[in-house]
Amino acid sequence: ATEGNCQRVIDALTRLEDGAARELTPKDILENVVVKIADEIEVDVSTHAWKVTYPEAMTTARETVIDGVRVPFLGLATLIASKETYREQDSVDRQRLLDLARRSSAP
Questions:
Q1: What is the pTM of this model?
Q2: pLDDT digits (tens, 9 = 90+) for 2-50
Q3: In the prediction, which pLDDT does 3 show?
Q4: Where do runs of H (alpha helix) occur along 1-107?
Q5: Of 48, 35, 38, 39, nearest to 74 (Cα)?
Q6: Quick one: pLDDT at residue 46?
């Protein structure tokens, strides 16, 4: 992660209704594991997804286009791996994702 990329994230999140991200600096994102932004929606920002590295994530990344903007996102297996943390909500999310994966691969 670079300060420039962190600033782009802050700039984008500042457009949310309450502008809560305006108070952040790139240093806030770079120095913390997770930064929670409570605005019209709640957003967690992190420079890494726990044990999943960016190069690993990109090997299985998926992509969609929204309003002409390319939006990459984690593949299901990588998203599940990213939820292997100590956080209770990640455990709940991981179980739901595992259930989804089982349903998706069922004959």
A1: 0.66
A2: 999 999 999 999 999 999 999 999 999 999 988 999 999 999 898 877 7
A3: 94
A4: 3-13, 26-31, 54-59, 76-82, 88-105
A5: 48
A6: 86
pLDDT of residue 38: 93
* Ramachandran sector of residue 90 (left: φ over 0; alpha: ψ -120 to 50; beta: rest): alpha
Q: How many angstroms separate the CA atoms of 56 and 26, rounded?
A: 24
Q: How many helices (H) and strands (E) does the chain have?
A: 5, 4
- Strands 69-73 and 62-66, sheet pairing: antiparallel
Burial of 35 (0-12, 13-18, 19+ CB in 10 A): buried
**Location of structure tokens 């300060």:** 3
Using a 10 angstrom Cβ sphere, with 0-12 exposed, 13-18 middle and 19 or more buried, the burial of residue 82 is buried
